[in-house]
Amino acid sequence: FGKRIFIDVNGGIRSILGQRYMNQVTKLNNGHLIWQMEYISDEELEANALNIKMVNEYCQEKGVPFVYIAAPDKISPWDSELPAGVEDYSNSNIDRFLEYIENLSIPFIDIRKELHNDGINQYLMFSRTDHHWNGYCGFYVWSKIRCWMDENGIDYEDTCADESNYTVKVYNNKLLGSYGQRTGKYFTCPDDFVVYYPNYDTSLTVGNITGRYEDILLNMSLLDSKEPEFIYDAFYPNYSPTINNSVNNDTRILIIGDSFSREVNPYFILTCKEYIWSSSYQSELISRNSLDGLAPDAMIIIHSPANNLGMEKSFRYFSNE
């Protein structure tokens, strides 16, 4: 009883005292919260990459474009913002994994480098109290994937490509992310929540329900809360197979991801005829037979490196064959 209040008070006192650590969460110099990542062995990372190679080889055999999206963890490789004496291996893990990926000729997009090359502050693209990227980064990542789709001749509705076709709304102090839940709303400031609303007509079918994007794939009621809450996951219920009734293409796209993909999924849903999503944590469900049955026109893996790299459950593709 009253746990939320006690956590808030605890975090507030620690903040006043200048403490940087609470309940396994570390506060960076810029106020962002992180979970320090441990070192993942080269053997584990190489095994992960070799498993992805099997997926890529299948796609090559079938003529299906495939790409691995290397999402960032919170810490920028060019500006760690780590307090003195604090170690974190998130970027080391990603760097070494991508080296294996590259040596195996697996196509990938390193979002960290894309942000850096475009002169964008990586921290502005992430929620302060959470490990997820925010709505701005969701659209940014989509824009990079869209370029890959263009290069590979994948048909999609280009109305969704132009940011001017959206209304971007910012809901102030609305999100207290997964790290913020462990430290309270006074350890660091709650996050604004950014939502992109299409300015064009939409008609989507999920199961037996057909309606506008906002009505069936956004949980708008969560924005009514007066206190910041962990609304990220529940706000974007976009894991179900979806048919877009408003586009003039027949593109079927398969996304393998986790909660990191929630901010990017809407743009596949809004641009392609058919959207299918599969959990990276249930990678064993992906087999040659299942992919033959799905017959996707493109296949993309996009997930959090912190929650997947080094995890056997996330790299068991084709293991049940």
Distance between the termini: 49 Å
Largest sheet: 8 strands, mixed
Q: What percent of residues are in strands?
A: 15-25%
The structure class reads alpha/beta
Q: How many beta strands in the DSSP annotation?
A: 13
Kindly provide the radius of gyration, computed on alpha-carbon positions and rounded to a whole number of angstroms. Answer: 20 Å
User: Largest sheet, order of strands side by side?
Assistant: 5-4-13-11-12-10-8-9
| Count of discrete alpha- or pi-helical segments spanning 4 or more residues | 11
Helix content: 25-40%
What is the helix/strand order? HEEEHEHEHHEHEEEHHEEHEHEH
Regions with pLDDT < 50 over 5+ consecutive residues? none
> Please, what is the average pLDDT?
96
Which outline best applies? globular
List keywords for this structure.
single chain, 321 residues, eight-stranded mixed β-sheet
What does this structure look like?
The chain is α/β, with parallel strands linked by helices. The protein is 32% helix and 19% strand. The protein has eleven helices and 13 strands. The strands form three sheets. The chain has an eight-stranded mixed sheet, with helices on both faces. A three-stranded antiparallel sheet has the order 1-2-3. Strand 1 (21-22) and strand 2 form a beta hairpin. Helix 2 crosses helix 3. The chain starts with a helix and ends in a 13-residue tail after the last helix. The relative contact order is 0.16. The model has no long low-confidence stretch (mean pLDDT 96).
